[in-house]
Amino acid sequence: MRDAAVDPSDLDAIIYVVQRRQIPPRWQSARVAYALGAREDVAAFDVPGQRTARSMAKALSAPGEPVRRVLVIEAEGTGQPSASLILG
Questions:
Q1: What is the structure's pLDDT at 79?
Q2: Cα–Cα distance for residue pair 31/33, rounded to 1 Å
Q3: Does the N-terminal peptide bond of residue 63 adopt cis geometry, omega within 30 degrees of 0?
Q4: At a CB cut-off of 8 Å and minimum separation 6, what does 71 contact?
Q5: pTM of the entire structure?
Q6: What is the maximum alpha-carbon separation in the chain?
């Protein structure tokens, strides 16, 4: 986010990629939003799989939509956590 010059308060949505369905859900996206200091109204949700997360992020940040900055985080089951910022 620093490289993209985006402050956590500028995020419109946070998507956290989970590797398997979690019962009960852990809502890691909400934890990340809180840790970053994102706005209270940021949309934060967990989804299964990177492909789903990227598709949702692109749909949310499509031209004409109110969501312009989506942070996608994948940190479960990977050797190295990664994050992508999708700008609409």
A1: 64
A2: 5
A3: no
A4: 1, 11, 13, 14, 15, 32, 83, 84, 85, 86
A5: 0.82
A6: 36
